[in-house]
Amino acid sequence: MTTNHDTRTHSPAAARVAVVTGGSRGIGRAVARRLARDGLDVVANYASDEGAAQQTVAAIVADGGRAVGVRADVADETAVAALFDRAEREFGGVDVVVNAAGRLALSPIADLDLAVLDAVHRTNIRGTFVVAQQAARRLRPGGSFVGFSTSVVGTQFPAYGAYAASKGAVEAITLILARELRGRDVTVNTVAPGPTATDLFLDGKAPEQIDRLAKSSPLERLGTPEDIAAVVAFLTSPEGHWLNGQVLRANGGLV
């Protein structure tokens, strides 16, 4: 199922093209909107919430951009191949891939349901591999792949064991993939946000817990989805093209 809106009359080849997984909400939505404002045509992927994806697409259109929403499970290689096919068919190619889709589960390691562990790793590890495979095969010269980790890989807060382990895997493949794409003029980087004010982050947290996390960085506030989107925009721009194989901890100075 797809959502499709187009208000411009230029040819599909006139703009660079971005595929943003998890583009229906949170950081993914902010990334999709920022890249569209920077002039890219956007394919906003979503897992199940078509209404949220339509909101992302409508916001891009309202700003004068072009976007489609395409449903796909990032861990399903057939669905992801179809997602990239749609991007190429709709806009002529792929220049930027941002894998913002992710799954979070909090539990002490001793109590974690292993079915939950499998679900987290299916989305966060297998999903990253599946999207990265298509990016490696299809990105045009000058293109960029951006994965997503978390600063919890470094802070190592209790209850984040499954999530941090899955994102540690994303960090581990970042430089490997960059090196495998030698000669292609394609960059590979990973962004590792700290506490960021998304619905996923805020859900279930008491106000005092949120306040404590907000004050944990020297800037004494939570990040915003737009803060993270600005980092992605730089990494995928011509100005950021010399950064390659890096993990950027976008967290306001959180240790």
Helical content (DSSP H or I, runs of 4+): 40-55%
Briefly note the CATH topology name: Rossmann fold
* Highest CATH level, the class: Alpha Beta
SSE string, helices as H and strands as E: EEHEHEHEHEHHEHHHE
Rg, nearest Å? 17 Å
- Average pLDDT value? 94
**How much strand content do the residues show?**
5-15%
The CATH architecture can be given as 3-Layer(aba) Sandwich
Number of alpha- plus pi-helical segments: 9
Shape estimate: globular
Terminal residue distance: 42 Å
Structure description:
Residues 5-13 have low confidence and may be disordered. The chain is globular and about 50 Å long. The longest helix is centred in the middle third of the chain and has 25 residues, at 114-138. The protein has a single domain (2-7, 15-248), classed as NAD(P)-binding Rossmann-like Domain (Rossmann fold). It has helices at residues 26-37, 50-62, 77-91, 114-138, 152-155, 161-180, 199-202, 207-214, 225-235; strands spanning 2-6, 17-21, 41-46, 66-71, 96-99, 144-148, 187-191, 247-248. It has 255 residues and is of the alpha/beta class. Strands 1-4-3-2-5-6-7-8 form an eight-stranded mixed sheet, with helices on both faces.
Feature tags:
Rossmann fold, alpha/beta, 255 residues, 44% helix
In a nutshell, what does this entry contain?
With 255 residues, the protein is an alpha/beta fold. The protein is built from nine helices and eight strands.
